[in-house]
Amino acid sequence: MVSLIQGLIILFSGALALMFHPLMERLYGMIAGPDSSTNPPKAKGPEHG
Fold it and tell me: Which residues does 37 contact at the CB level (< 8 Å), separation at least 6?
């Protein structure tokens, strides 16, 4: 019974994280401005030379 409850807690916690992700992404886009959401910075690779 305890394992079942623990499993349900983990399941619903993961579902809530996925449910709120688009909302948080939209809020971050509003706060950060339009430039940061349309053109994310490109990661630099290791330089060989």
Answer: 28, 29
Best CA proximity match to 3, nearest among 43, 23, 37, 11: 11
Give the global pTM. Answer: 0.41
Give dist(CA 34, CA 22) in Å, integer: 16
What is the rounded distance in angstroms from the CA atom of residue 35 to the CA atom of residue 14? 30
Which sign does the torsion angle of CA 16, 18, 19, 24 carry? Answer: positive
| H or E stretch covering 39 | none
pLDDT tens-digit series, residues 1-19: 999 999 999 999 888 888 8
